[in-house]
Amino acid sequence: MAQGTIRYWAAAKAAAGVHEEPYDAVTLADALARAARVDGRDADFGRVIGRSSFLVDGVPVGKRPHEAIELPEGGVVEVLPPFAGG
């Protein structure tokens, strides 16, 4: 189990209700599942996450399965929803 930080941007930040929060997870899929279970988060959070792209310590996840992305100790996951005009 690794510990690190999830950072949310734009619509992901609005859906999460915070700019960042800690993770305690083995994989990206595990971290996102735990984040979805935070009290007060609704279906909008899941929709935004489902459309987002991710960086783990600056490396794009791309189309790799989130279950296959192991999170590093002290790492940073960036949650990037689609941006208008970009």
Automatic annotation (TrEMBL):
InterPro entries: Beta-grasp_dom_sf, Mopterin_synth/thiamin_S_b, ThiS/MoaD-like. SUPFAM superfamilies: MoaD/ThiS. This is MoaD/ThiS family protein.
